[in-house]
Design a protein that fits this description.
This protein is an all-alpha fold. Helices cover 67% and strands 3% of the residues.
Amino acid sequence: MKKLFKLNENGTTVRTEIMAGITTFFAMVYILMVNANMFANPFGDGTNILGVSYGAIYIATAISAVVGTLLIGLLSNLPLAQASGMGLNAFFVYTVCVGFGMTYANALFLVLIDGIVFILLTVTGLRKKIFNAIPKAVRAAIPAGIGLFIAFLGLQNAKIVIPSTSTGVTLGSFNLLVDGSWASIMPMVVTIVSVLAIAIMSKKNVKGAVLIGILGGTGLYYLLGLTVPDFYANFAIDLGSPFKAFEEFGTQAFGKVFTEGWNFSAFAEAHGTTNLIITIVTTSLAFCMVDMFDTIGTLYGACARGNMLTEEGEIPNMDKAMLADAVATTAGAVCGTSTVTTFVESSAGVAEGGRTGLSSVVTAILFFIAMFLSPIAQLIPSCATAAALIYVGVLMISCVKEIDWHSAEIAVPAFLTLAMMPFSYNISYGIAFGLISYLVINLFTGKVKEIKAGTWVITLLFIAMLLLTH
């Protein structure tokens, strides 16, 4: 393993990589349950409008995560993991299927186009050129934006930040005087204690601080459950049979993109052929743009956090990492799930010390095991994994010191990049606003010659995507 993954050259050990892989898995295993529930029960009322079961999507999500994570680990030797992306799955379900009225199989066909286009862009080297077209002002802010984004995810998962009808979001209630409030306060306490514990252990250079924080938070959650009325009375584990989920996967999800995905006759009959063509083009563009820049942003952010960038400030083995992402997206479409992308939660493993593809292999193995142990995977509460996400957000914000905040042409694109990621709940939109502002400011300040041709192209594509699909 030392030779295969170049552990010595990367200053890491087998133990560190294993710990990092486990940490990444625990930080992102929620996607198996969340994705399956989103497809099978999109409105939370038991209505299955897509015609695919929880078990089928659970297996499809797990298999695509195994494929993508193994590929990125073995091909690029980077400590990253892949699975069906949050945001992209919501776009698949709520915009393409519910909003546009396309079938589940039709949406898979558009994801397949996304994957094939990505493979072509990667093997021709165009994807790397696209990354190099991102100006430094935007590139420097990407890790910080991702850090804020995943910290925001963690705060939401822990219910410390909750939706508000008046302000959008607000602080969860810590009021002990309300009857039964301790049941909702307890998980928030677990998250806060876990974050502080991780910080203390990190300060003392304790190896595995993030993973210990997740496992310790899990133990504290079930210990404090003794203080919550009816906590264990309502607690039950139904192992069931994993083979039923595999059976549903085979009949409802696997290969649907080929047997039914190409048939858009129902949509064309309802909306017209012209509308069908426009919808296919713009939706495919949206899938491609969001997936591409989610992956680019995550790759750059995670590598910057782990000091793994090359001397030129580029992502090591970027083409291979991109190819892994493209193949995984294609495999995901065949399996029956939405676009597969590199997960921002991979930064949790990087923060744990992961530096090579060995940690990715460990994460992939755990995803494979999780296919047969879905109820057990749910034993790790979100309030425990939320602590890891929040702490990683702290680590990734440090790059803002490299930004010249006194220069408007740098500060404004950088700020919009890092601010729009958490505020819009999307990494790509942050990059889009950063690029648009960069282009406009330089255009009207006499620096048009400094704008690269590639920057013009991807900025205009982002504008088209925002105008036509959002």
